[in-house]
Fold this sequence. Notes:
Layout: E1 38-39, E2 54-59, E3 68-70, E4 73-82, E5 86-95, E6 101-108, E7 125-127, E8 130-134, E9 139-144, E10 150-155, H1 156-160, E11 174-176, E12 179-184, E13 186-191, E14 197-200, E15 212-216, E16 219-225, E17 229-234, E18 240-245, E19 258-260, E20 263-268, E21 273-279, E22 285-291, E23 306-308, E24 311-316, E25 326-331, E26 337-342, E27 348-352, E28 355-359, E29 364-369, E30 376-377, E31 382-383, E32 394-396, E33 399-403, E34 408-413
Parallel strand pairs: 1-27
Antiparallel strand pairs: 2-34, 3-4, 4-5, 5-6, 7-8, 8-9, 9-10, 11-12, 12-13, 13-14, 15-16, 16-17, 17-18, 19-20, 20-21, 21-22, 23-24, 24-25, 25-26, 27-28, 28-29, 29-30, 29-31, 32-33, 33-34
Amino acid sequence: MLRYLCVICVLMTATAAISAEYRGSDWPQWRGPSRDGISPEAGWLAQWDSQPPIAWRWQIGIGFASVAVADGRLYAMGNTNRPGQGYYETIHCLDAETGQTIWEHSYPARLVNKLHEGGPSSSPVVDGGRVYTLSKVGQAFCLDAATGKPVWDADLTQLLDIAVPEWGFTSSPLIDGPNVVFQAGATVALDRQTGKLVWKSPPRKPAYTTPAPLEVGGRRMLAVLHSEGLSIIDSSNGAELGFHSWETDYNTNATTPIIVGDRVFLSTGYNKGCALLRVGQDGKLQELYRNAQRGGTMSNHFNNSVLVGGHLYGFDGNSHNARNVELVCMEFDTGKVLWRHKGLGCGSLIAADGKLIVLSDDGRLVVVQAAPDGYKPLTDEAQVLGGKCWTSPVLSHGRVYCRNAKGDLVCVDLRPQG
Length: 418
């Protein structure tokens, strides 16, 4: 397996030191600490002249999984072809500052649907000294976060008696109280300590989404987007409380529902568009609006929008027609589109300190003011990666981590100096 480490400590010069007052935050799971694509960090360097400083680069193997960062360590996943042995997935634990390997855990895992590289698409989650992952072929792992030693593993294809979906298993693990939850057609809860099956929901067509927790009237539920629609599930026993049909032309949904109180926002690709729904205490769903007309909607193919100040920011359009995909600002309450910007392809974004950290689908990084009155870039577009970049960036402790499909992982150091 090819690996490389280069351009270390660009910021660490004799005349510049990182500000000791900067306070960062871990990014321990899919969509960040609050599962909304937003980092609480402020004061990072949101402007640069031409190119932001690159701290290190590393090769982790092909895939689309985002990274998790906790306690100074970064957890990532990728797949490599070992000569004479076949394909292996690897869970990497790296030093978040230097990129050097702390431990690795590898296991055989074939590529699923090589049309788009294949490789793992589920992002790790770190909680309680353990890291939880899901392979492309349905192997769930719980590892000791410090050492990488396996605590337990489970095969979702056997637990649920299902085949591997067309694009593999891509649901990121969700820690929900004593359980870890996955979407795999049926939604399944495993005891996070033992890996034993706790409950499974009624079966639905598998999608490529991650469950989102919500609470209405003191009742804990999960919003789970399947290929045929949205299910509201009782998180204590897996019972389906409500269902709302949401099908696309290609029978594929790949985004995580966005939760605000008792409201659930859906946005999916193939010109399906978006909708805002209200969840009752009984789990039943009421549609507040639906917006499906091209040019006046938010149709997220596989990367989620973020909600900042009552406005959604995200990419409208599909990857196979990336030239026409636009970054869109839309009112959350009404579905009204306020502005559109073309030129970043089918990219991805997160938010922090009222700003958007945007990665284009060809590896250009740019910081944009989250403003409802127009597209306002704060930086030049910086080419930090090449190749296909469909994975959301991550901000943690002043560093932005970006990866591409072939497994190049880059750390951009935006910590303030002083």
